[in-house]
Amino acid sequence: MHISVKCSAAIHCLVLIGAYGDRPRKITGELLSQSSGVNAVTIRTILSALKKDGILTINPGKGGATLNCPPEEISLYRVYAAIEPDFLTKLIGIHPEPSEACPVGRCIHEVLECSYSKVREDLKRSLESITLDTIIADYRRLHEEDKRRQGLI
User: Fold this and answer.
1) Dihedral of CA 73/77/79/82: which sign?
2) Where are the domains of the chain?
């Protein structure tokens, strides 16, 4: 099973925008690339997909990205579907050419789909239950703990 690294990078970008987007410094693709360690071209692709889905507003020319909706309305499922629309169908691979001469081979795809569809639905529900506001709250909590460990507060 596999979900692309681009999805984690998208969440990274959204946390940075959600947690710091109200500050005077603009959240640009370059800043997001530096923060995430992800290539700037990939970041632009991610931002474009999030904008197309309505998650972000991007100010061309003067720069800066802002959330287009409240963090509690942005689920992990929505982000992943924006970045990789077919991620659920690609989640579990099925061997493509079972033998038609075998009774199992003739119907194995349908048999597997009975179980795999349940897995996809469970994953979808789970991803829908986690929202950006929860992730930002986790970030803030862990960031405060990190500052305490470092003796900064």
Assistant:
1) negative
2) 5-149
